[in-house]
Amino acid sequence: xxxxxxxxxxxxxxxxxxxxxxxxxxxxxxxxxxxxxxxxxxxxxxxxxxxxxxxxxxxxxxxxxxxxxxxxxxxxxxxxxxxxxxxxxxxxxxxxxxxxxxxxxxxxxxxxxxxxxxxxxxxxxxxxxxxxxxxxxxxxxxxxxxxxxxxxxxxxxxxxxxxxxxxxxxxxxxxxxxxxxxxxxxxxxxxxxxxxxxxxxxxxxxxxxxxxxxxxxxxxxxxxxxxxxxxxxxxxxxxxxxxxxxxxxxxxxxxxxxxxxxxxxxxxxxxxxxxxxxxxxxxxxxxxxxxxxxxxxxxxxxxxxxxxxxxxxxxxxxxxxxxxxxxxxxxxxxxxxxxxxxxxxxxxxxxxxxxxxxx
Length: 359
Hints:
This protein is an alpha/beta fold.
């Protein structure tokens, strides 16, 4: 007698779907490991406490919700692992001077610890961005969503013509270098170039800041490629300028930005307008000080707004604006559809006159 119990394939796939984590909900995660990538970068490996698999798109991010000194905080981080390996989730974090969450993670999160994670989120997605000849441009820790894309493509044994240009401060700051070198050696259709901005006697590769001539020198067929870019805002601005100099079609350019903030001119405009924020559901009103964001206004009134990056990138603090005008300096945290529907980002929006919010 056959001792194995069989069941229809449809039941199997239904069970697998039930175990998937793909609905942007908050889940308890267990830290299964901590990997030292560089002197100031660690990768945290998570599995779902509820025995779920991770279903997301390469390039997306999650929101970590640690409790620090008794206060619940939230920060967004790109997923560095690929969706082709659904049993764990990797988040790679660079320690930043004065960074509340990055420093706490580096100093406190250990194997076996539990943390709440929300996601997946974000429209910077590999499968949603077509391109036969992808060019990945990374600056510093901006490699994290791009390594997820590269791991996905190589796991699939993709035959696409792949190029990565990775800019770092110095050789010791190149994250995932050994893995990237191994992937390039294994897959002849993947070419990896590192660029260091800081002079180093031991470095024989390209040096300097990214600009149009350098891009054309490193990637002669630049105009034929679809660009996926991620890095700090200073790097991204130089990159956008360089691609413009090189005549790259903006329709073939896709980005995810780390960092940023409201520019001086935008701050001056926001500060010059007498403004107030009304919270419709809470019945509260707040007269804004110069330069105050909607998030500042909400906190000053005791109105809760969930937040992540606080830089206009992640979209966690999006709220519905019922009336009024705001000056918003976002870095891609809202889709065009969300903007058309009246949503704004509380962290980087400043009231221009009287604003009514659905809070």
